Queue: 4 jobs
Job 1
Amino acid sequence: MNADELQKILEDHALWLEGKGGAQADLSGADLSRASLSRASLSRASLSEASLDGADLRYASLDGAKLEMADLEGADLEGADMRGADLRLANLNGADLRWANLRWANLRIADLRGADLRGADLRWANLRNANLLGALLNSHTVGDGQIVTWTSTYWATSTRDERGVRWLQYGCVALPLSEWRERAKELAEIHEPQKAAYYEAETLALVALCEALDEEAQR
């Protein structure tokens, strides 16, 4: 696909998003390796199985986009809006996802090895069976069964004890991971009553990361 063809698809998609005709972008399977798509408007576009390795997608709008099985290895997605994007089985190995908005994104079985997720918003994201080995989370590395990171509220650390049970210490509270999931709302209302919903969401995002790490270790 040449630059003119891509530009025409993007223009038509912008019109479609505005309800002014045009056409929804279907770039499924397209070769967009190293494409310059910074700040591109691709909300709800179909990019399944597209080759986007090394692409410049900084601050692009990809909310609701279909990116399952897309190749985003080494892509620059800094600040990208990826809320609710479908990234199942996507290759994000080494991708730059700093400050990306990944709320509600489906990252099930995604390859996030070595990805830079510092500052990324992972609240309500599905990270089930994602590979997070070597991923960077707020300046700290995930690996060797341990997580050391921070949220906008507290530092968090997670390790497994001698029985193999994973514990999460978030702020001054340390509990087995299973209890955090069950009691997230209760603990949020106790420790951060003024912003309980936010604290609960951050807690559940940490739990999801820990679960994804453990699932990877078991494979």
Job 2
Amino acid sequence: MTISPSRPRVHQRSGHRPLFSAGFRLVVVAAALSLAAGLAGCGDGGTSATDSSAAAPMTTTSARSVRLEVPAELTSAESHLMKVGEDASKTYGWNTLVGPSSTDLGTFDVEMLGNVDYENGNGPFFGFVTLTDLSGDLLGLRMDGEASVEADGSSALEATFEVIGGTGQYSEASGTGTLTGTRMAAVGAPIEIVIIVDLIGVAL
């Protein structure tokens, strides 16, 4: 009787296959590591775009609004005035008046360039006023006004101002103002005035 050599038996476990493939396990591990790194960044004070804007330093400015009151007595430095009409009742031309002023904001040099168109001393005037402080910073104003002769022969002056701009601490200034004043004699004589300007954006 011939006996065939026996083959080694391989024991297999039926029904027990791996739940996840090696590739899948690698993906899960990588995702876990990525999540852990993200959490660590938050814990260490990582800065997001929102945090960056919230942490940005605040910028402050000293610019403010202020009322500037400028009393002054101005005298004519130069003028070119013409009289016309049959009785020379009409006067037109320009007059530059200058003088110092002491204000709550310091001393200013005042220069007024006035253009006039009067009849018997009454009528409109317009021009520019420049205020220059001791540091050399200047403020420019445009002026539109009216002169009227009073019973005593003096002239009342009233005008409005609009700020044109300035330099230095007045470089961003804007605002409006008024002028009231008196001239005791004919055009070209000294005037006493008070300029009041409400300034916005002055860096004081």
Job 3
Amino acid sequence: MNYCLKDLADLTLQDIFDVATEHLLFQFAKCSRGVGCYYRYEDKKCAFGVFISDEEYNKTMEGVGASAVIKRFGVPSEVLKNDLCKMDLCNDLQGIHDYSPIYEWAEELYDLAVTYELISPILQEKT
């Protein structure tokens, strides 16, 4: 399924986590040119980039954190004002993609699931 930024308003924390986790573990590669990470590069997307549709994507998004992209390009802040956990989760998922070695992703994602009290059958298979 293809997602867009506005979908974040309707997705649950569990949905966001599941989509990003499945994407990262299937892709199993950073979206990078060797230095820095990108929302998209060539045929890859980062953990948060999977929620940015082709129509929404703009190169000016690069170098901007997930929560800033949500606020500037996607979901009006009043929609998410009572659900800051979604922005926090998106930032945390982006952080795992950007800063953790790929071989640690499954463990980092598992720890993130525990932190947010989420379940993840795909991670139980990987860890």
Job 4
Amino acid sequence: MNLYLRLKSHQKPECCLYFFAFNNLNIKLMNSKLYLGLVPILALGLIMGSCKKDDPQTEPDPVDPYEDLYKIGEADASFNELHIALYMGEEPFMGYNYVYAVVTDLTTNEVISNCNVTYLPMMDMGSMQHSSPVEQPMWNADTLAYAGTVTFIMPSAGGTWTVSVKAENPATHNVGEAIFGLNVINKPEPKLFSFVSATNGDKIFVALVEPREPHTDMNDFDLVIYNKLDMLTFPPVSDLQISIEPEMPTMGHGSPNNVDPVSTGNGHYHGKVNFTMMGYWRVNMEIRDANGDLMYDQGYFDITFNNL
């Protein structure tokens, strides 16, 4: 009894329930010969198990801010002052790709947010080389990276794609470069088509920007359009007239209330497409120049989805 009383007088608040149970057991065993043998054992278990201090909380694992991106690779840039990691929004494909570069200082290992970064994609076809349209990157605080785009105009099956990333060290003004090889696929439903303009013979590339996650009802229908001047130069075209007509080829109907894309600048066009049901859709396009003369009327994007 003395041991029980001493334990009870020094118990911690969190142990009350255990001593309540222990006290009930004590009453039942008071007249038992087992009492004197069980009390020390139970008391020792309570002291070592129930009343021990809580384990200190462990720190959660750090979150990788780039874990949702598709990593192409990483390398030390020339001059050995900077380290560059290259990511994309998804596996590289023929069409409009979001591209992210993370630049860190090799000495401090800290991400640098105030340097000049440029992209140069190149396709090596053996007998010839060419580039593709680029929107040069700018620092994006949300992604903690330099965000830009590359519109690959052909898949890797025709040659080898690389992307050169150049970054200027703001401390020394030295420009370092890292070159990354990558495999560019062509999606089952291509996100880019090209044509030769019927009005002036220009080579035009049209890439689908949205919808990337199509659904029933109204969807953004966004395009970006470039003109090929030479193997390295692809200026955006912002003065075209575009009309769209979606249809379900297997169902024999279209949809109402679509909004033709109009220029928002820098080669981008924004419209709306109405998918009235899930399944296979084809969005047909007619493209005219600034004067209203027909350039091409056979363009389309196939879009299939099975979610509401």
